[in-house]
């Protein structure tokens, strides 16, 4: 009866009812995230490619980048001296690596005769 009344299968290929599938797609198509015009989407992608995150102060511009696991800065492979065929799982940028060595571990001062004073 249901099939002849609506002239469609009550279940679509995903197993949900055809009515709920139609209403879900209608709702998602009308959601605010899908209301951009193509020119707005183009401008957004252009802005993303112009966004500067690397310390070289040059934009993304489609070049491959990697994120520092400590400061979360995105850095071009070329600036980080990383090759596409040798990308590390976890990367720490040079600035974060250097900052670990410049932090003082003690307030002791070395004297000329190599003895420590406090």
Automatic annotation (TrEMBL):
The Zinc finger PHD-type domain, residue ranges: 53-97
UniProt keyword list: Metal-binding, Nucleus, Zinc, Zinc-finger
Database matches in InterPro entries: Znf_FYVE_PHD, Znf_PHD, Znf_RING/FYVE/PHD
GO terms classed as biological process: mitotic chromosome condensation
Record's subcellular location: Nucleus
Pfam family membership, one: PHD_5
Ranges where the record places region Disordered: 1-44
Record keyword Zinc-finger present: yes
Compositionally biased region (Polar residues): 1-42
GO molecular function, one term: chromatin binding
One GO CC term, this protein: nucleus
Cross-referenced PANTHER family: HISTONE-LYSINE N-METHYLTRANSFERASE SET-26-RELATED (PTHR14571), PHD FINGER PROTEIN 13 (PTHR14571:SF13)
Official protein name in the record: Zinc finger PHD-type domain-containing protein
Species this protein is from: Magallana gigas
